[in-house]
Design goal:
The protein has 137 residues and is an alpha/beta fold. It contains 3 helices and 8 strands, in the order βαββββαβββα. Helix 1 runs antiparallel to helix 2. The radius of gyration is 17 Å and the shape is elongated. Pfam families: Glyoxalase.
């Protein structure tokens, strides 16, 4: 029996530039690239850590579309700095959150937003709820 997996597909204007960005910012490894007419990417796969994503250039069948991903890392500040250095912009600065995570959000040059997340505390769901309720007042 095959294991079910889900592979996100990014549709962007400039797939080759995006792949290079993810290589520089996230250490992505290109696994496969299939060019179509004019050299545009019709399908490519790349790996970031243990995750595989696919990507293609936008076309008349698949317009460019925004996406939001959470990137779980050991050092949120280092990951955020790498994204910024490669050309991403800060949407929300990386900071400690009451729910036990150090998080922030950055937007890459292709309209994809990345929540950079580092676990700082192992909290029960009840403690997270208590902290969020206490901060909402």
């Amino acid at each position: 029996m095959n294991e079910t997996t889900v592979t996100p597909k990014l549709v962007v204007d400039g797939a080759d530039r995006a792949i290079d960005f993810y290589r520089r910012a996230l250490g992505a490894e290109l696994l496969v690239r299939h060019p179509g007419p004019g050299g545009r990417v019709v399908y490519a796969e790349f790996r970031v850590g243990g995750s595989t994503l696919s990507i293609k250039d936008a076309d008349e069948h698949d317009p460019a579309a925004p996406a939001l991903f959470t990137l779980d890392v050991a050092d949120a500040h280092a990951a955020g700095a790498a994204l910024e250095e490669a050309g991403a912009t800060v949407v929300f600065p990386i900071d400690d959150q009451p729910y036990g995570l150090r998080q922030g959000r950055l937007a890459d040059p292709f309209g994809i937003q990345w929540i950079v997340s580092q676990t700082t505390e192992d909290l029960s769901p009840e403690e997270v709820r208590r902290r969020l309720e206490a901060g909402a007042g």
